[in-house]
Amino acid sequence: MKTIKLFLTFALIGVFQLAYAQTDIIVSGQLLNVSTAPFNVVTLNFYDGTFATSSSANTDINGYYSHTFPGTLTSAGTVELIVHDCNNDTIFETKAYNVSTGDTLVNFTTFDYCPTTNPPATSNVYASGNLTNTNSVAISVLLSLVDVNGNTMNATAITNTNGDYAQTFSTTTTSQGTVYMQVLDCNADSIYETKAYDLNVNDSLVTFTTADYCPAITPPVMAIYASGQLTNTASAGINVSLELMDGGNTTSVTVVTDANGDYSHIFYPSTTQGTVYMQVQDCNADSIFETKPFDYTTNDTLVNFTTFDYCPVTVPTTCQAYFTVAQATGPNGGTIAGSVQVTDGSTASNPANLTYTWYFGDGSPNGVGTALTHNYPLNGPYALCLTINDGLGCISSHCDTISVDASGLLESEGFTLYIGTEVLAVEKTNFSSAVSIYPNPASDFIHIEYNTGNKALNSVTMYDLTGKVVFENNSNNGSAHKMTINTENIETGTYLIKMLFDDEIYNQKIIIK
Fold first, then answer.
1. Where are the domains of the chain?
2. Which CATH class is domain 432-512?
3. Residues 6+ away with beta carbon under 8 Å from 332
4. What is the pTM of this model?
5. Which end of the chain is flanked by fewer CB atoms within 10 Å, N or C?
6. Fold of 123-212
7. Which residues are in the PKD domain (predicted)?
């Protein structure tokens, strides 16, 4: 009994080991009607209940393929075959194996890789769709059927009062293809769509998406892009004024430059044409100003201003008016009574742009130019002045007092200061030597002494070059005959002191340094 039990135990162990030994599974098959090149891929999927794997095999020139899956731990499983044939259809088959019964060879059915397909003798493809918002107007819809072989059939369908359209295509070539639909809507925009059909699966109805034939169009918002740059800003934010004018409408904004001096703004004008203005005050308090047009109809929507230097180095200009006076002479060299010849003798750092304005002091129109002849009708005296302007901020005036003696000859009597648009009248006095104003130039004080006999001093007035009164004293000093003007708070420059003695006027130029 013991011997029999031991034999049975070893027998059972052998069966157990046989059931669970790893055994290779050999898969094979054949595809007919393949090309001679061995590149037809066969996909094989292996399942043993606990393990799954996938592999690919290539057919040889006769269409044979094979593959060995390594040993499995279970006794039974399946192998799947997947092949896409030359018509792009799928060949699929499943085979089982059972190691315990010795069934380890999986032979798939022989399949035709490139079977001949016969399309139906005549098949119809039905294309249809709908256009809304047609206002019951008949609309032409272009339809084109293109099969997989490139054969094309074109047709034009007309919508009914409800906007429906339909077309039947009869095809005798292939069972698959595409139908194209195109129509121009009321805004001349294209509506376009494609749909596929496949008669092999009874997919012969091609229904296009319902489309709005006349959609409302929102006009694009007009935008004007204004930009520019200021250099030399030291990364400071500079305020730039921008103003858009279009058809009488004005939109004003202030933008700030970034660290690079760039600035920009988007305007939304109400009309298609207009102008954008840019203005900024530079570091020298001078104005930078520029205008640029825009025209939306020609896509001229970018307004790029010139790049300006925000802090240019300014070189002050200098100018000094001066002229000479001579008696005018006739063609034969003789003097002309009462007539004066004036000639410019001014100097300036920018002489090319100088303008010359002459004030003759007799009520006659002003003169222009560098050399003039002028006739004085009476004896005077007259204040003759020349003002020059270089257009760059430098303005200078020079004056002289002119009198005509009994014989018609001219006398130059001294300096008279140009004040604004008028000239202070200079009266001829008989006591010029009786007045002393010193020092000249002055710094802190001006001393005035005078001895005019019975002529009382009524007032003393001091003017700057603009005609502004910087000092005035209307008190009668009686017998003191002297006074002092404190000039510590008066800016340096050229001034005129005017003294009124009863019916006499005395003028003198004074310089404060």
1. 2-112, 123-212, 224-309, 319-423, 432-512
2. mainly beta
3. none
4. 0.30
5. N
6. Immunoglobulin-like (2.60.40)
7. 323-404
Question: Do 251 and 243 form a contact (C-beta atoms < 8 A)?
Answer: yes
The predicted structure's pLDDT at residue 466: 62
The alpha helices in 211-360, defined as continuous H runs, are none
The first and second tokens of residue 372, run together, are 């003039």
What residues pair up with 242 in beta bridges, in sequence order?
253, 278
With a pLDDT cut of 90, the percent of the chain lying above it is 28
**Pairing between strand 504-512 and 435-438?**
unpaired
- Lookup: tokens for 456: 């009382």
Least confident of 225-229, 339-343, 380-384, 454-458: 380-384
All residues at 6 or more sequence positions from 201 whose CB lies less than 8 Å from its CB, including other chains: none
* 319-423 CATH choice from 3.30.450.40, 2.60.40.10, 1.20.120.1760, 3.30.470.20: 2.60.40.10
Band (pLDDT 50/70/90 cuts) for residue 13 is: very low
- Position 46 confidence tier, pLDDT thresholds 50, 70, 90: confident
DSSP letters, 236-272, are ---EEEEEEEETTEEEEEEEE--TTSEEEEEE--SSS
Tokens of 396: 């200078």
Please check whether residue 156 is in contact with residue 237, taking contact to mean a CB–CB distance below 8 angstroms.
no
- 102: phi then psi, degrees, rounded to nearest 5: 80, 15
Task: Give yes or no on whether 319-423 and 432-512 have one common fold.
Answer: yes
- Edge-to-edge strands, sheet with 395-404: 367-368, 355-359, 382-389, 395-404, 410-412
CATH architecture, range 224-309:
Sandwich (2.60)
For 406-421, how does the pLDDT look when each residue is reduced to its tens digit (9 = 90+)?
666 666 544 433 333 3
Tell whether omega for the bond before 439 is within 30 degrees of 0, i.e. cis: yes
Closest to 303 measured CA to CA, from 358, 243, 391 = 243
Written as six digits, the tokens of 245 are 């004018």
Of 6 and 267, the one with more pLDDT: 267
d(CA 233, CA 135): 63
Identify the helix (H) or strand (E) that includes residue 106.
strand 105-107
